[in-house]
Write a structure and sequence with these properties.
Blueprint lengths: L3 E5 L4 H17 L2 E8 L10 H27 L4 H4 L4 E7 L2 H11 L4 E5 L7 H4 L3 H8 L4 E4 L1
Helix pairs in contact: 1-2, 4-6
């Protein structure tokens, strides 16, 4: 039924719960999982020191790398190893707006299903900006499974 599953991750507990669902669905359907980490850099614009911006970007990239690594570990440790071993996994990192990057990836990769957590690491964003999940649910051209 599904060929490509997009799994956005920020390393939060909600993203890890979503990963469990994506792994299960992929192991049953043979779908490819595209794990996407988006580094939000818009808040860095206007910081006074360029070297500070570079250091913060490096920290965010490292945090993103750890998020992707954790999902890889979850897949490797999957209980149903015989079914998951044939599933193709693609790990990718982008810079930009998380919701926009997710929506662009849906289109560019012909994603059939998005599996994502209901909240991320920055729960306050939900009140200030509107949640990434809500934006994706409202605008996605494919089904979105929001995991709480």
């Amino acid at each position: 039924m599904y060929q490509k599953i997009l799994l956005p991750t920020d390393g939060s507990k909600f993203a890890e719960k979503a990963a469990e669902h994506a792994i299960w669905i992929a192991s049953r359907s043979g779908a490819e999982i595209i794990v996407l980490n988006v580094i939000e850099t818009s808040s860095l614009v206007g910081l006074p020191a360029e070297d500070l911006i570079v250091k913060i970007k490096e920290m965010l990239k490292e945090e993103g790398r750890r998020s992707l690594e954790r999902i890889s570990e979850m897949i490797a440790q999957s209980e149903d190893e015989s079914k998951i071993k044939d599933v193709k996994i693609t790990l990718t990192t982008e810079e930009g707006s998380p919701a926009d990057s997710i929506l662009k990836t849906i289109e560019s990769e012909n994603v059939d299903l998005v599996v994502m957590g209901t909240s991320g690491k920055h729960g306050l964003d939900r009140f200030l900006l509107g949640s990434v999940t809500e934006k994706v649910v409202r605008s996605a051209t494919c089904p979105v499974l929001a995991v709480h």
